[in-house]
Amino acid sequence: MNQITIIGLGHIGGSFAKDIREQGGLAARIIGVENNESHATQALELGLVDLVLPMSEALLEADLVFLTIPVDAMLQVLPGILDQVNANQTVMDAGSTKEALIESVKDHAMRSRYVASHPMAGRKTPARGQPSVGYLKANVQ
User: Fold this and answer.
1) By the 8 A CB rule, do 59 and 83 touch?
2) Burial of 54 (0-12, 13-18, 19+ CB in 10 A)
3) Residues 6 or more apart from 54 whose CB is under 8 A from it?
4) Angle at the Cα of 72 from the Cα atoms of 67 and 73, rounded to 5 degrees
5) How many domains does the chain have?
6) What local confidence, expressed as pLDDT, does residue 141 receive?
7) Cα–Cα distances in Å, from 63 out to 2, 9, 36, 45, 123?
8) What's the rounded Cα separation, in Å, for the pair 71 and 28?
9) 91 with 82: CB under 8 angstroms?
10) Comparing C-alpha atoms, which of 51, 42, 47 is closest to residue 18?
11) CA-to-CA distance for 48 and 83, rounded, in angstroms?
12) What is the rounded average pLDDT for all residues in the chain?
């Protein structure tokens, strides 16, 4: 895989990026999209992503687009992301609910490029601080 784009570099997105780095060889580049400047800075400083770019640029060469933002935000951006992807790109999410997401793109021409998914790695309390190595692997249920 050449490029993974992660939209949202908080705990789930950061942990996903960290696990990809630790595994090695899964992607030549990891690109982040993040509105929170401190999350973007931390992801760059920790080497979790190679670049943080605006969404439209980050989608251009992505093989995989991974949405790790809150579901209400996903509802706003998912249709626009599908407007920009091609038949060789895959979009997946780490949202906790699926019905509204699937409904929002059910008739989209690129719906087949969207894989509704869930890492099953949530926490009972909000995550704080640095992303965790092995967090997703250790918490898969």
Assistant:
1) no
2) exposed
3) 33
4) 50
5) 1
6) 42
7) 7, 18, 24, 24, 29
8) 28
9) yes
10) 47
11) 27
12) 88
What is residue 139's predicted lDDT score, i.e. its pLDDT?
52
Between 87 and 125, name the one with better pLDDT.
87
Provide the whole-model pTM: 0.86
What mean pLDDT comes out for the span 59-74?
96
| CA distances in angstroms from 11 to 14, 61, 81, listed in the order given | 5, 24, 22
CATH of the domain at 127: 3.40.50.720
- 49 near 31, Cβ under 8 Å? yes
Amino acid at 36: N
Range of the domain at 133: 3-139
Asked if 123 and 40 count as a contact pair (C-beta separation under 8 A), the reply is no
Radius of gyration for the chain, computed over Cα atoms and rounded to the nearest angstrom: 14
Instruction: Dump the DSSP string for the chain.
Output: --EEEEE--SHHHHHHHHHHHHH-SS-SEEEEE-S-HHHHHHHHHTTS-SEE--HHHHHTT-SEEEE-S-HHHHHHHHHHHHHH--TT-EEEE--S--HHHHHHHTT-TTGGGEE--------SS---SS--TTHHHHH--
